[in-house]
Amino acid sequence: MNAAIREQFPILHQEINGHPLVYLDNAASSQKPLAVIEAIERYYRWANANVHRGVHTLGSRATDAYEGAREKVARFLNARSASEIVFTRGTTTALNLVASSYARSVLREGDEIVLTPMEHHSNLIPWQQAAKACGATLKYIPLQEDGSISLEDVEKTVTSRTKIVTTAHVSNVLGVTNPVKEIAAIAHRVGAVMVVDGAQSAPHMKIDVQDLDCDFFAFSGHKMCGPTGIGALYGKLGLLESMEPIEFGGEMIDHVDLYDSTWKEVPWRFEGGTPIIAGAVGLAAAIDFLQEVGLDRILEHEKKLAAYAVSRLSEIEGISIYGPRDNRAGLVTFNLADIHPHDVATVLDSYGIAIRAGHHCCQPLMRWLKVSATARASFYLYNTEDEIDRLAEGLVRTKEYFDYAAG
Amino acid sequence: MQLDDLYRRVIMDHYKNPRNRGLFDDDAVNVDLNNPTCGDRITLQMKVKDGVVEAARFVGEGCSISMASASMMTDAIKGRTLYEAIQLADRFSALMQGEDAEFEYEDIEALSGVSKFPARIKCAMLAWNALRKGIVQVRQP
Fold it and tell me: Are residues A230 and A355 in the same domain?
């Protein structure tokens, strides 16, 4: 990766508290390149109108832009067709759609949903609610000591009562990449569907939903250089066609009577109301941008940064690093001696370094790690080894500062 | 941004040597409160007799600001009526909004710097919000 990539991100070129910004909170949200900012601006300057109904030229431009974005997402995930792509507000909305529509229609009393303790709250609570509504139960694949899961445990946890298996593709805390293709195969053997939370994988690696053979795959645009408020759900066409919409209104109907109505075909039946058109346009531009750089190259760069960060941070006395040591995705979750992560994040911010501190929407995982909170540095294509050096220096200074302040 | 505005020595002293840490063995007003955005949590206990806080204790997990604030608060409300305790909580809220506020228990004023760190105000408020909840419990048993 080179300086030309950083040049594309105007926000990175500023000072925070008198220091050049080091943005290491990419797992929470990524920054946006000029190509995305300009695509959104161009849409509003040149094409804006409502979609799917205007006879006029702007209506066609907006519809073309929106449906073109859907085609782009389909190719990005290697879906069979654009009909398998539902635009959503993000990963949370996408997972809620599966849990509210698909899950509640198939789950019967005594059925099981299999998941892991490392799930983000957005891939946990929708299933809790669906289970409660249907009398189903949640079953957890146990974590290994380093936070990974073993296929043997998946085999043991999945039974003939299992209807849904779901997991994060990449953990937002541990940085492990779960073997979702193999897990999907185990799920399919008992006739269950496989739902993948791709929020932390789609921004960083090539996704091929046909190769993974997952049934649903959810991701967010804002973590992959796109705007907030847009994401997508991939679903196998037959499954989507079996699902009822959960939001009703304009755009999603076929025929409306006083007492009954019918729905449009998929995916539009799941997109009630005027959609996030400019968001979809921005997401399409983000996909172009990432593919131009090359997702393989991005993944390799981030893995290198993560390995470098683990080695630099390990040099600091009193540091605890969570998750597997090797082969981790581009993030490092840690604690520094007995200094609370909020205090760590505040001191780092005074040096212009942005990291995340807290439970990362993973309270059950925090309990498994036996901590109340952690600090996390997460990387993206524009981060550099120099920035990781700044992080390491910042952490040393944090320790010195706290020793001094506690006097 | 001046870190020393936030991490005053007196705050770090309360953090490293918290006052009133631990729980009562016998009955007391009990409040559990957590900060869902960050995972900080506190259990506050108060002994209240005839509308006066005789003693208060706490246990919890959190950053230096939230724990120091709890340490100070439990000291400051000792011997106060519930009405005075509410007034203290109000004055503390004003302090967090950047307003001038004086406290007989002067250590609290060291937390004034928190108002310049918007992301940390909720840390300092946790114990005080637990206090408000506890007072509501006493008044509406």
Answer: no
